[in-house]
Write a structure and sequence with these properties.
The protein is α/β, with parallel strands linked by helices. It is 43% helix and 14% strand.
Length: 153
């Protein structure tokens, strides 16, 4: 069976992309889909997600505490079928590394692909408060629900 591999990308891979990773992974059958996450920057390589992301995920019934932060690599274009980025800056940083149009075609803004009405960028909650993390979780949960529906059709 062919497995679809999906990568979630944000800046540091500690707030948004670990949440998106955990949320989408919980909505897709593990025998058909693999979900991972990465950051465009190398600030937090090898660390766990931000404690606030872990807490909001746990409050929603998801455990993302075992994820480890890593940086986006050129090989991710080969290893993943879809690369969802959280904002335009992440999109620009990933596309800069692309080797060709095929690589670029894999990269999508997560909210744009999910056709949410709240714009095309997931705000970075890092400098914010608990409510900012809650809002990001809600945005990503809605987006991942639509993505999983479309992928499972």
């Amino acid at each position: 069976m062919i497995m679809t591999r999906i990568l979630m990308v944000c800046l540091g891979n500690i707030c948004r992309s670990p949440l998106a990773h955990g949320i989408l992974e919980s909505k897709l059958p593990s025998d058909k889909f693999e979900v991972d996450s990465a950051g465009t920057a190398n600030y937090h390589i090898g660390k766990s997600p931000d404690h606030r992301s872990i807490a909001i995920a746990k409050a929603k019934g998801l455990d993302i505490s075992n994820q480890k932060c890593r940086q986006f690599e050129l090989s991710d274009f080969d290893n993943f079928d879809i690369i969802y980025v959280m904002d335009q800056s992440n999109y620009d940083n990933v596309v800069k590394l692309a080797r060709d149009a095929e690589d670029i075609a894999k990269v999508k803004l997560i909210l744009q692909d999910a056709q949410t009405s709240t714009g095309h960028e997931v705000p970075d909650p890092y400098w914010g408060n608990t409510q900012d993390f809650e809002d990001v979780f809600t945005l990503l949960d809605d987006a991942c629900e639509k993505i999983s529906y479309n992928l499972n059709r």
